[in-house]
Amino acid sequence: MSSRGFLRAEQKAWTEALADFNEAIAQRQDYAEAHVGRGRVYAETGQLDQALGELNAALAMSATVQNGFYWRGQVYRRKGDVDRAIDDFSRAIAQAPQTERSAYFSRAQLFVAKGDYTRAIADFDKLLSLLPDNKAVQQQRQAAVAMQAELAKVHDGQPAAPGVSPSVAAAPAAAPVAPLPPIAATPTPSAMQALQLMKQAKYADAIALLNRMLSANPNDQAALPLRAGSLLALGRWAESHTDADAYLKLKPNDVPVLGLRAIASIGLRKFEEGLADANQAIRLDPNNAFAYSARSTVYRVTGKLQEALADIDHSISINPKDGVAFTGRG
Q1: I need a labelling partner for 323 at 20 to 30 A (CA). Which of 83, 106, 158, 294 fits?
Q2: CATH of 189-329, one of 3.40.50.300, 2.60.120.200, 1.25.40.10, 3.40.1130.10
Q3: What is the CATH code for 2-145?
Q4: For residues 76 and 88, is the Cβ–Cβ distance under 8 A?
Protein backbone atom coordinates (compact mmCIF):
# COMPACT_ATOMS: atom_id res chain seq x y z
CA MET A 1 0.00 0.00 0.00
CA SER A 2 2.76 2.41 0.93
CA SER A 3 4.71 1.82 -2.30
CA ARG A 4 1.60 2.43 -4.36
CA GLY A 5 0.94 5.55 -2.30
CA PHE A 6 4.36 6.96 -3.19
CA LEU A 7 3.76 6.25 -6.88
CA ARG A 8 0.41 8.01 -6.75
CA ALA A 9 1.98 10.93 -4.92
CA GLU A 10 4.50 11.28 -7.75
CA GLN A 11 1.50 11.44 -10.11
CA LYS A 12 -0.06 14.09 -7.81
CA ALA A 13 -3.08 11.83 -7.30
CA TRP A 14 -3.40 13.05 -3.72
CA THR A 15 -6.75 11.49 -2.78
CA GLU A 16 -5.69 8.03 -3.93
CA ALA A 17 -2.24 8.38 -2.36
CA LEU A 18 -3.77 9.40 0.97
CA ALA A 19 -6.06 6.35 0.91
CA ASP A 20 -3.05 4.08 0.36
CA PHE A 21 -1.04 5.65 3.18
CA ASN A 22 -4.07 5.46 5.50
CA GLU A 23 -4.39 1.75 4.75
CA ALA A 24 -0.68 1.15 5.31
CA ILE A 25 -0.78 2.92 8.68
CA ALA A 26 -3.94 1.06 9.70
CA GLN A 27 -2.06 -2.20 9.18
CA ARG A 28 1.09 -0.98 10.95
CA GLN A 29 0.95 2.10 13.18
CA ASP A 30 4.74 2.46 13.46
CA TYR A 31 5.37 2.50 9.68
CA ALA A 32 7.45 5.69 9.57
CA GLU A 33 7.70 5.84 5.76
CA ALA A 34 3.91 5.81 5.44
CA HIS A 35 3.64 8.68 7.93
CA VAL A 36 6.14 10.65 5.78
CA GLY A 37 4.04 9.90 2.71
CA ARG A 38 0.86 11.02 4.43
CA GLY A 39 2.68 14.11 5.69
CA ARG A 40 3.71 14.95 2.14
CA VAL A 41 0.13 14.61 0.89
CA TYR A 42 -1.09 16.94 3.63
CA ALA A 43 1.69 19.41 2.80
CA GLU A 44 0.96 19.35 -0.92
CA THR A 45 -2.73 19.94 -0.31
CA GLY A 46 -2.20 22.85 2.07
CA GLN A 47 -3.01 21.05 5.34
CA LEU A 48 0.17 22.17 7.05
CA ASP A 49 -0.70 21.44 10.68
CA GLN A 50 -1.72 17.87 9.84
CA ALA A 51 1.45 17.51 7.75
CA LEU A 52 3.63 18.67 10.63
CA GLY A 53 1.98 16.19 12.99
CA GLU A 54 2.60 13.29 10.61
CA LEU A 55 6.21 14.22 9.98
CA ASN A 56 6.95 14.74 13.66
CA ALA A 57 5.49 11.29 14.32
CA ALA A 58 7.58 9.73 11.57
CA LEU A 59 10.81 11.30 12.84
CA ALA A 60 10.02 10.25 16.41
CA MET A 61 9.81 6.67 15.14
CA SER A 62 12.99 6.92 13.08
CA ALA A 63 15.31 9.93 12.84
CA THR A 64 16.74 8.45 9.63
CA VAL A 65 13.48 7.87 7.78
CA GLN A 66 13.92 8.83 4.13
CA ASN A 67 12.63 12.32 3.22
CA GLY A 68 11.32 12.97 6.73
CA PHE A 69 13.46 16.04 7.37
CA TYR A 70 13.07 17.26 3.78
CA TRP A 71 9.28 17.32 3.89
CA ARG A 72 9.18 18.77 7.39
CA GLY A 73 11.50 21.49 6.09
CA GLN A 74 9.02 22.18 3.31
CA VAL A 75 6.21 22.48 5.84
CA TYR A 76 8.18 24.94 7.96
CA ARG A 77 9.06 26.87 4.80
CA ARG A 78 5.41 27.16 3.80
CA LYS A 79 4.55 28.25 7.32
CA GLY A 80 7.17 31.00 7.05
CA ASP A 81 9.52 29.54 9.68
CA VAL A 82 12.72 30.01 7.68
CA ASP A 83 15.21 29.05 10.39
CA ARG A 84 13.53 25.75 11.22
CA ALA A 85 13.20 24.99 7.51
CA ILE A 86 16.93 25.56 7.00
CA ASP A 87 17.70 23.32 9.99
CA ASP A 88 15.63 20.49 8.55
CA PHE A 89 17.04 20.84 5.04
CA SER A 90 20.51 20.73 6.62
CA ARG A 91 19.61 17.49 8.44
CA ALA A 92 18.31 16.01 5.18
CA ILE A 93 21.58 16.93 3.47
CA ALA A 94 23.65 15.46 6.32
CA GLN A 95 21.86 12.14 5.87
CA ALA A 96 22.45 11.98 2.09
CA PRO A 97 24.92 14.68 0.96
CA GLN A 98 25.29 13.26 -2.56
CA THR A 99 21.61 12.81 -3.38
CA GLU A 100 19.58 15.45 -1.52
CA ARG A 101 19.45 17.84 -4.47
CA SER A 102 16.03 19.22 -3.62
CA ALA A 103 17.18 20.03 -0.10
CA TYR A 104 20.26 21.87 -1.39
CA PHE A 105 18.08 23.91 -3.77
CA SER A 106 15.47 24.75 -1.14
CA ARG A 107 18.11 25.67 1.43
CA ALA A 108 19.93 27.88 -1.09
CA GLN A 109 16.71 29.77 -1.84
CA LEU A 110 16.13 30.34 1.87
CA PHE A 111 19.71 31.59 2.33
CA VAL A 112 19.03 34.08 -0.50
CA ALA A 113 15.85 35.19 1.24
CA LYS A 114 17.90 35.81 4.42
CA GLY A 115 20.57 37.70 2.48
CA ASP A 116 23.20 35.02 3.25
CA TYR A 117 24.61 34.91 -0.27
CA THR A 118 27.85 33.12 0.64
CA ARG A 119 26.00 30.05 1.90
CA ALA A 120 23.48 30.23 -0.94
CA ILE A 121 26.26 30.26 -3.53
CA ALA A 122 27.96 27.31 -1.80
CA ASP A 123 24.73 25.30 -2.10
CA PHE A 124 24.24 26.30 -5.74
CA ASP A 125 27.87 25.27 -6.42
CA LYS A 126 27.24 21.87 -4.84
CA LEU A 127 24.17 21.42 -7.01
CA LEU A 128 26.09 22.41 -10.15
CA SER A 129 28.75 19.82 -9.30
CA LEU A 130 25.92 17.27 -9.50
CA LEU A 131 23.83 18.94 -12.23
CA PRO A 132 26.27 21.07 -14.27
CA ASP A 133 23.78 21.88 -17.06
CA ASN A 134 20.81 22.88 -14.89
CA LYS A 135 19.78 26.33 -16.17
CA ALA A 136 17.57 27.22 -13.20
CA VAL A 137 20.41 26.62 -10.75
CA GLN A 138 22.86 28.53 -12.96
CA GLN A 139 20.55 31.54 -13.13
CA GLN A 140 19.81 31.63 -9.41
CA ARG A 141 23.51 31.33 -8.61
CA GLN A 142 24.29 34.23 -10.96
CA ALA A 143 21.63 36.36 -9.28
CA ALA A 144 23.04 35.56 -5.82
CA VAL A 145 26.56 36.45 -6.96
CA ALA A 146 25.34 39.75 -8.41
CA MET A 147 23.57 40.73 -5.19
CA GLN A 148 26.57 39.70 -3.09
CA ALA A 149 28.80 41.93 -5.22
CA GLU A 150 26.36 44.84 -4.92
CA LEU A 151 26.24 44.57 -1.14
CA ALA A 152 30.04 44.32 -1.00
CA LYS A 153 30.24 47.67 -2.80
CA VAL A 154 27.99 49.23 -0.18
CA HIS A 155 30.03 47.77 2.68
CA ASP A 156 33.20 49.13 1.06
CA GLY A 157 31.70 52.60 0.86
CA GLN A 158 31.13 52.51 -2.89
CA PRO A 159 27.86 53.77 -4.37
CA ALA A 160 25.26 51.14 -5.12
CA ALA A 161 23.95 50.70 -8.61
CA PRO A 162 21.42 53.38 -9.61
CA GLY A 163 18.05 52.76 -8.03
CA VAL A 164 19.29 50.12 -5.56
CA SER A 165 18.99 50.85 -1.86
CA PRO A 166 21.75 49.45 0.37
CA SER A 167 19.08 47.68 2.39
CA VAL A 168 17.57 45.89 -0.59
CA ALA A 169 17.93 42.14 -0.50
CA ALA A 170 17.68 39.89 -3.51
CA ALA A 171 14.55 39.76 -5.58
CA PRO A 172 12.11 37.00 -4.64
CA ALA A 173 13.74 33.62 -4.94
CA ALA A 174 10.88 32.31 -7.04
CA ALA A 175 10.52 35.30 -9.33
CA PRO A 176 9.33 34.17 -12.74
CA VAL A 177 12.03 33.52 -15.30
CA ALA A 178 11.53 35.80 -18.27
CA PRO A 179 11.14 34.33 -21.74
CA LEU A 180 13.87 35.08 -24.22
CA PRO A 181 13.09 38.58 -25.50
CA PRO A 182 11.97 39.15 -29.09
CA ILE A 183 14.43 40.31 -31.71
CA ALA A 184 13.97 42.24 -34.91
CA ALA A 185 11.99 40.65 -37.76
CA THR A 186 15.23 40.51 -39.79
CA PRO A 187 17.83 39.89 -37.06
CA THR A 188 21.48 40.58 -37.64
CA PRO A 189 24.05 37.80 -37.23
CA SER A 190 25.26 39.50 -34.04
CA ALA A 191 21.75 39.48 -32.55
CA MET A 192 21.36 35.80 -33.38
CA GLN A 193 24.75 35.06 -31.79
CA ALA A 194 23.71 36.92 -28.61
CA LEU A 195 20.45 34.98 -28.50
CA GLN A 196 22.33 31.68 -28.76
CA LEU A 197 24.61 32.72 -25.90
CA MET A 198 21.55 33.48 -23.77
CA LYS A 199 20.06 30.07 -24.55
CA GLN A 200 23.31 28.58 -23.20
CA ALA A 201 23.04 30.80 -20.06
CA LYS A 202 26.25 32.61 -21.07
CA TYR A 203 24.80 35.95 -20.10
CA ALA A 204 28.07 37.78 -19.46
CA ASP A 205 29.30 36.85 -22.95
CA ALA A 206 25.99 37.93 -24.45
CA ILE A 207 26.19 41.29 -22.66
CA ALA A 208 29.72 41.90 -23.97
CA LEU A 209 28.52 41.34 -27.53
CA LEU A 210 25.37 43.42 -27.03
CA ASN A 211 27.40 46.26 -25.52
CA ARG A 212 29.35 46.49 -28.80
CA MET A 213 26.13 46.49 -30.81
CA LEU A 214 24.61 49.25 -28.69
CA SER A 215 27.79 51.34 -28.79
CA ALA A 216 27.35 51.46 -32.56
CA ASN A 217 23.59 52.08 -32.34
CA PRO A 218 22.08 52.97 -28.91
CA ASN A 219 18.56 52.39 -30.27
CA ASP A 220 19.23 48.95 -31.74
CA GLN A 221 15.81 47.30 -31.38
CA ALA A 222 17.30 43.80 -31.53
CA ALA A 223 20.02 44.41 -28.95
CA LEU A 224 18.10 46.38 -26.29
CA PRO A 225 15.60 43.67 -25.25
CA LEU A 226 18.29 41.00 -25.40
CA ARG A 227 20.58 42.95 -23.09
CA ALA A 228 17.66 43.72 -20.78
CA GLY A 229 16.95 39.99 -20.53
CA SER A 230 20.60 39.07 -19.96
CA LEU A 231 20.99 41.69 -17.23
CA LEU A 232 17.79 40.47 -15.59
CA ALA A 233 19.09 36.89 -15.53
CA LEU A 234 22.18 38.13 -13.65
CA GLY A 235 20.12 40.05 -11.10
CA ARG A 236 21.30 43.42 -12.39
CA TRP A 237 17.87 44.93 -11.91
CA ALA A 238 18.64 48.64 -12.38
CA GLU A 239 20.54 48.14 -15.63
CA SER A 240 17.89 45.77 -16.98
CA HIS A 241 15.20 48.33 -16.10
CA THR A 242 17.13 51.06 -17.94
CA ASP A 243 17.39 49.00 -21.13
CA ALA A 244 13.71 48.05 -20.93
CA ASP A 245 12.84 51.75 -20.53
CA ALA A 246 14.84 52.63 -23.63
CA TYR A 247 13.21 49.88 -25.69
CA LEU A 248 9.67 50.66 -24.53
CA LYS A 249 10.11 54.28 -25.60
CA LEU A 250 10.52 52.87 -29.10
CA LYS A 251 7.86 50.12 -28.81
CA PRO A 252 5.60 50.97 -25.84
CA ASN A 253 3.21 48.04 -26.35
CA ASP A 254 5.75 45.23 -26.39
CA VAL A 255 4.28 42.68 -23.98
CA PRO A 256 7.39 40.53 -23.25
CA VAL A 257 9.52 43.58 -22.48
CA LEU A 258 6.79 45.04 -20.26
CA GLY A 259 7.02 41.74 -18.38
CA LEU A 260 10.81 42.04 -18.20
CA ARG A 261 10.55 45.55 -16.78
CA ALA A 262 7.95 44.40 -14.26
CA ILE A 263 10.37 41.79 -12.91
CA ALA A 264 13.22 44.31 -12.81
CA SER A 265 10.95 46.64 -10.82
CA ILE A 266 10.28 43.86 -8.33
CA GLY A 267 14.02 43.42 -7.89
CA LEU A 268 14.30 47.15 -7.17
CA ARG A 269 11.34 46.97 -4.76
CA LYS A 270 9.36 49.33 -7.01
CA PHE A 271 6.23 47.27 -6.62
CA GLU A 272 3.70 49.79 -7.91
CA GLU A 273 5.71 50.22 -11.11
CA GLY A 274 5.99 46.46 -11.51
CA LEU A 275 2.27 46.03 -11.01
CA ALA A 276 1.50 48.77 -13.54
CA ASP A 277 3.68 47.11 -16.18
CA ALA A 278 2.21 43.66 -15.53
CA ASN A 279 -1.34 45.06 -15.72
CA GLN A 280 -0.51 46.82 -18.99
CA ALA A 281 0.96 43.61 -20.43
CA ILE A 282 -2.20 41.69 -19.47
CA ARG A 283 -4.44 44.36 -21.01
CA LEU A 284 -2.49 44.16 -24.25
CA ASP A 285 -2.37 40.35 -24.30
CA PRO A 286 -4.79 38.60 -21.89
CA ASN A 287 -3.32 35.23 -22.92
CA ASN A 288 0.29 35.96 -21.99
CA ALA A 289 1.32 33.49 -19.28
CA PHE A 290 4.49 35.38 -18.31
CA ALA A 291 2.55 38.59 -17.65
CA TYR A 292 0.30 36.79 -15.15
CA SER A 293 3.34 35.13 -13.57
CA ALA A 294 5.02 38.53 -13.16
CA ARG A 295 1.91 40.05 -11.58
CA SER A 296 1.61 37.05 -9.29
CA THR A 297 5.12 37.76 -8.01
CA VAL A 298 4.24 41.38 -7.23
CA TYR A 299 1.19 40.23 -5.30
CA ARG A 300 3.17 37.55 -3.44
CA VAL A 301 5.94 39.83 -2.22
CA THR A 302 3.41 42.46 -1.14
CA GLY A 303 1.41 39.92 0.90
CA LYS A 304 -1.63 39.57 -1.40
CA LEU A 305 -1.49 35.79 -1.47
CA GLN A 306 -4.98 35.06 -2.80
CA GLU A 307 -4.45 37.39 -5.75
CA ALA A 308 -1.02 35.83 -6.30
CA LEU A 309 -2.49 32.33 -6.39
CA ALA A 310 -5.24 33.37 -8.79
CA ASP A 311 -2.70 34.83 -11.22
CA ILE A 312 -0.28 31.91 -11.07
CA ASP A 313 -3.20 29.51 -11.58
CA HIS A 314 -4.16 31.49 -14.68
CA SER A 315 -0.56 31.46 -15.92
CA ILE A 316 -0.41 27.67 -15.56
CA SER A 317 -3.74 27.26 -17.35
CA ILE A 318 -2.26 29.16 -20.32
CA ASN A 319 1.14 27.42 -20.24
CA PRO A 320 0.89 24.12 -18.32
CA LYS A 321 4.48 23.21 -19.24
CA ASP A 322 6.04 26.10 -17.31
CA GLY A 323 7.90 24.41 -14.45
CA VAL A 324 8.90 27.76 -12.94
CA ALA A 325 5.23 28.73 -12.57
CA PHE A 326 4.52 25.48 -10.68
CA THR A 327 7.48 26.24 -8.40
CA GLY A 328 6.13 29.72 -7.76
CA ARG A 329 2.70 28.34 -6.89
CA GLY A 330 4.28 25.82 -4.52
Answers
A1: 83
A2: 1.25.40.10
A3: 1.25.40.10
A4: yes
